[in-house]
Amino acid sequence: YSAAFAIGSVFSDLPNKQQAWSDLHKLINDKNSWVRYSAVSAIGSAFSQVPDKQQAWNDLHKLINDQDNDVRSQANHSLGKVSIFKASQAEREEDYKKELETAIAFFEKAARESLSWNNPSQFCLPLYRSFHTIVFKKQEAREEVNKYLEEAKSAIEGSQSKKLLFEAVENLANAL
Predict the structure, then answer these.
(1) pTM for the structure as a whole
(2) Contact call for residues 113 and 76 (beta carbons, < 8 A)
(3) 118, 44, 107: which is closest to 76 by C-alpha?
(4) What's the distance, CA 53 to chain centroid?
(5) DSSP per residue over 102-117, as a string?
(6) Cα(67)–Cα(98) distance, rounded to whole angstroms?
(7) How far is CA 160 from CA 23, 133, 150, 167, in A?
(8) Are 28 and 59 within 8 A, CB to CB?
(9) How do residues 30-64 score in pLDDT, each as one tens digit?
């Protein structure tokens, strides 16, 4: 568990990303659910720098069917994060929208799946729903945006980074 967490935490600074990726890939098959959970989380965080993105995607998809609900939830959350990354790389608006909607679907599954009180998808889901509504539904959706922003606001839980992200989306909503 600690090894997977450590690899995920420092992945961007590691000189041998191929070896680190190979280790994470092996750890997703560990018999211990906490090790799988930590490996899935690390893959989601390091995805943009993982040498074999298709294998990472496949590994995450495999674990959305894990017997442990926390592993399933984290796999869905990581797939949501990966989809946000893919959206950020999209060159066409329709591809961006598709990836954003895919991310929202994964965050929704992650939020439903987890029994944990500190599930990050409980923040990401309403935040990205509101962002999607702001960008793609514009004026007619102000009430819907306010609802999602209130959900996201209640999930901040004292996190400074969540608060800053929330304020950015709230400012975007006000600007539009």
Answers:
(1) 0.80
(2) yes
(3) 107
(4) 15
(5) HHHHHHHHHHHH---T
(6) 29
(7) 32, 24, 17, 10
(8) yes
(9) 999 999 999 999 999 999 999 999 999 999 999 99
